[in-house]
């Protein structure tokens, strides 16, 4: 079993009001030195069987058509190993 992670972020040219709100609040909370914050989404998919090129292509299609709005968002797909103790 493997875990495939899809991270979805707004494209750099798209305004991120949530990220801006967090960035403005940080100095008031004592966290200085943070110049920018971007907010995004993370999806963790547990995949039965091997994660081969065909499986990654299907997950890429899933991310492109369902998980991300590709007009305003970019996404990345990566495989994470699932530790035996975590199963």
UniProtKB/TrEMBL annotation:
Its main location: cytoplasm. It is found in: Cytoplasm. Pathway: Purine metabolism; IMP biosynthesis via de novo pathway; 5-amino-1-(5-phospho-D-ribosyl)imidazole from N(2)-formyl-N(1)-(5-phospho-D-ribosyl)glycinamide: step 1/2. GO terms for biological process: 'de novo' IMP biosynthetic process. One of its GO terms (molecular function) is phosphoribosylformylglycinamidine synthase activity. It holds the Pfam family PurS. It catalyses: N(2)-formyl-N(1)-(5-phospho-beta-D-ribosyl)glycinamide + L-glutamine + ATP + H2O = 2-formamido-N(1)-(5-O-phospho-beta-D-ribosyl)acetamidine + L-glutamate + ADP + phosphate + H(+). Part of the FGAM synthase complex composed of 1 PurL, 1 PurQ and 2 PurS subunits. This is Phosphoribosylformylglycinamidine synthase subunit PurS.
């Amino acid at each position: 079993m493997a875990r495939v992670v899809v991270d979805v972020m707004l494209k750099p040219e798209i305004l991120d009001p949530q990220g801006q709100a967090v960035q403005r609040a940080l100095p008031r909370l004592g966290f200085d030195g943070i110049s920018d914050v971007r907010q995004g989404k993370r999806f963790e998919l547990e995949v039965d069987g091997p994660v081969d090129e065909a499986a990654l292509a299907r997950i890429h299609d899933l991310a492109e058509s369902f998980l991300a709005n590709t007009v305003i968002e970019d996404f990345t797909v990566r495989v994470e190993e699932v530790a035996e103790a975590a199963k």
